[in-house]
TrEMBL record:
It comes from Actinoallomurus spadix. Residues 462-665 form the Peptidase S9 prolyl oligopeptidase catalytic domain. The lineage of its organism: Bacteria, Bacillati, Actinomycetota, Actinomycetes, Streptosporangiales. This is Prolyl oligopeptidase family serine peptidase. Residues 83-349 form the Dipeptidylpeptidase IV N-terminal domain. It comes from the Bacteria.
Length: 666
């Protein structure tokens, strides 16, 4: 099963199936669900929970964007415009008469019932009869069952809030009480008649939501799960398999993670494993898991610099292989992603035959595996498009065709290792550039933790190449803190989100200038989110290097950003405010060694509907710049969130940025 639109200019996602015959015959794909064929209004009417989930997941498509199936893949459930639908994966697609709006429907393993969330209540509907009832209803307006709270979805990668029992007779559900969380209000200044939207936002140093777990039986029974929630308040993830319930919990300072086994009948938990680190521990997708024999599958450093795959307590990957995620455990085979070179992410398998890499060439890959069938999907540096290959017992059994448009660009990216830290850096020059004159430079980083820009995937450089074709040498660099280079590299930004990342951008710029004809008297920098913070930081702290900046949705004051992300790097601002002051843009405006009359053109851009990096970041920085007599420009985007999915907005933003940079860099 897979999701794909009908074409590269079609934003509506459909549900498809690829039938792979067991006799080695030709695999054939078929359309299972086309949202346009269903009896729905012309525009999607998304529930608030689904709108928030898509924002957290950075999902920009419409139609069927998520689905869930039963164990034998005979039934799939999905939501459209707040209504619940099921399909038998053949010709039959029908709505269920569920409460509306319905969110996150998931069938039980037998396919007899579908659980979903509506009105903050966790409900179950019987597929055959349509009998619908609430298993757990909120005790107050700030309580929900079966939903992932903001922190889980935005920072932990956990988009779900409930899990079915293997026999389909009960559910493990998260109970979230947001009453301790402070309330922020996001207004729509372009429409003053619209009331401000209230959001529960856990800013650094303030209370989080109170998250607990409860086992809910279809027979009406209810059992709370017990663990030390005061010491381990973060619920990272959960898994309920044939051997029982596993949950992962984390301390607020993120220096300890525990795997606990829970007895669903009593709610008691026992310790399976505890990992600690004096700095912080990262959350790795896909774990914990277990093999049929009961061996725990986990990912940890365990005294090494690179994260390794742990199976049954034994590290089974070598030191030079940095594990990124566990994709699936299929029998005795563990499918996972890992990097030997940080710009490449490959799919590996560990099983009875040992360790094997399943993908080759320079690229970025992922996959799934079940019942001996493996699906590998990835992008390569030497071509556009996504390749999706199906293997059965290791032999090719079919392909899924990509309908993506091919960008009308001749991407000429060169990946280098810049400076003494061998910063992974991409350099792009204008198409047809002959090298006659040095080029003005545009640094185009993200630059922060938990994200990479320099990857061996051609599609990652389509926009940078377009920027280069406007007359710039574009330089993209991943500095300290970025993933894929081990514990010491990632922890280098501990208690300082400003100094190391800015130093590394300068080192990458100078390293690129040693190999390419760059005009270092005309250097601009642009970025979004952390990249926006880095761009503003660059012209405020180092105007001797950077001569113009575009800061999109920048974090300007880290006390205004969320708990789980910010406290991981900077600690508790109430206990120690110094790392926050060191990393703040306001310190760069009012303090430092840069005279107030040394200014560089700075354009601040922010979506007024952003509930992740709220517009207060930009507005407060603008006030501080004005008070300091530092000229700048502000571009507010009405109705735009942290994403800019609107095509007109995205396109015109690029054109405005190019005009600003050309004028600023003369």
């Amino acid at each position: 099963m897979f999701l794909r639109t009908r074409g590269g200019t079609d934003p509506v996602t459909c549900l498809w199936a690829l039938d792979v015959p067991g006799d080695g015959g030709e695999a054939k794909e078929r359309l299972v669900v086309d949202p346009r064929a269903l009896d729905l209004p012309g525009e999607e009417d998304l529930p608030a929970e689904e709108r928030a989930r898509r924002e957290r997941a950075r999902e920009q498509a419409g139609g069927v964007v998520t689905y869930a199936t039963d164990e034998d893949l005979t039934l799939a459930a999905f939501g459209l415009s707040g209504r619940l639908f099921v399909t038998d994966l053949g010709a039959s697609v029908r709505p269920l008469d569920a409460a509306v709006p319905a969110f996150d429907p998931r069938p039980n393993p037998a396919g007899t019932h579908v659980a979903y969330v509506s009105g903050r209540a966790l409900r179950v509907i019987e597929v055959a009869t349509g009998a619908d009832r609430a298993l757990a209803e909120p005790e107050g307006e700030q309580v929900s069952y079966g939903l992932a709270e903001f922190i889980a979805a935005e920072e932990m990668g956990r988009m779900r809030g409930y899990w079915w029992a293997p026999d389909g007779t009960a559910l493990l559900a998260a109970r979230v009480d947001e009453s301790p969380v402070r309330r922020w209000h996001i207004a729509d200044p372009a429409n003053p008649e619209t009331p401000p939207r209230e959001v529960a936002y856990p800013a650094a140093g303030t209370p989080n939501a109170d998250v607990s777990l409860v086992v809910l039986g279809l027979d009406g029974t209810r059992q709370a799960v017990e663990w030390d929630r005061e010491a381990f308040p973060y619920l990272v993830t959960a898994r309920w398999d044939s051997r029982g319930v596993l949950i992962v919990v984390q301390t607020r300072d993120q220096k300890a993670i525990r795997i606990l086994e829970a007895d669903p009948s009593t709610g008691r938990t026992t310790l399976v494993r505890e990992d600690t680190d004096p700095v912080w521990l990262d959350i790795v997708p896909g774990v914990p898991a277990r093999t049929p024999a009961g061996d725990l599958v986990w990912v940890a450093e365990d005294g090494h610099d690179a994260r390794g795959l742990i199976v049954g307590g034994e590290r089974v990957t070598p030191d030079g292989l940095h594990v990124r995620s566990v994709l699936d455990v299929d029998g005795d085979t563990v499918l996972f992603t890992a990097s030997e070179e940080p710009t490449e992410i490959h799919v590996w398998a560990y099983g009875p035959g040992g360790l094997a890499r399943l993908t080759d060439g320079a690229g970025v890959f992922g996959g799934r595996r079940r019942g001996g069938t493996t699906v590998l999907a990835g992008s390569r540096l030497d071509r556009f498009g996504t390749e999706t290959t199906v293997l059965r017992d290791g032999a090719p059994a079919g392909r899924i065709v990509s309908h993506a448009e091919q960008p009308a660009l001749d991407v000429g990216v060169t990946l280098i290792r810049a400076g003494e830290r061998e910063l992974r850096t991409a350099v792009l020059l204008p198409t047809g550039y002959t090298g006659d004159e040095p080029l003005p430079v545009l640094m185009d980083p993200y630059g922060g933790p938990h994200a990479q820009r320099v990857l061996a995937a051609r599609r990652a450089f389509a926009e940078p190449q377009w920027l280069a074709d406007q007359g710039f040498a574009v330089v993209v660099a991943d500095g300290r803190g970025s993933p894929g280079r081990g514990r010491e590299w990632e922890h280098a930004i501990h208690r300082d989100l400003a100094g190391p990342v800015l130093e590394d951008q300068i080192a990458a710029l100078r390293g690129a200038a040693e190999r390419f004809p760059l005009d270092l008297s005309r250097v601009g920098i642009r970025g979004w989110s952390f990249g926006g913070y880095l761009a503003a930081l660059a012209v405020l702290r180092r105007p001797d290097v950077f001569h113009a900046a575009i800061a999109g949705a920048p974090v300007t004051d880290w006390t205004l950003y969320d708990t789980h992300y910010t406290e991981r790097y900077l600690g508790d601002p109430g206990a120690d405010p110094e790392p926050y002051e060191r990393s703040s843009l306001f310190d760069a405006v009012s303090g430092g060694d840069v005279p107030a009359d040394v200014t560089r053109p700075l354009l601040l851009i922010h979506g007024l509907a952003d509930d992740n990096v709220v517009a207060a970041h930009t507005l407060r920085l603008s006030s501080a710049l004005l008070a300091a007599g530092r000229p700048h420009a502000v571009l507010p985007l009405s109705g735009v969130t942290h994403m800019t999915p609107q095509e007109v907005v995205a396109e015109n933003l690029l054109l405005l940025q190019i005009r600003f940079l050309k004028e600023a860099l003369a």
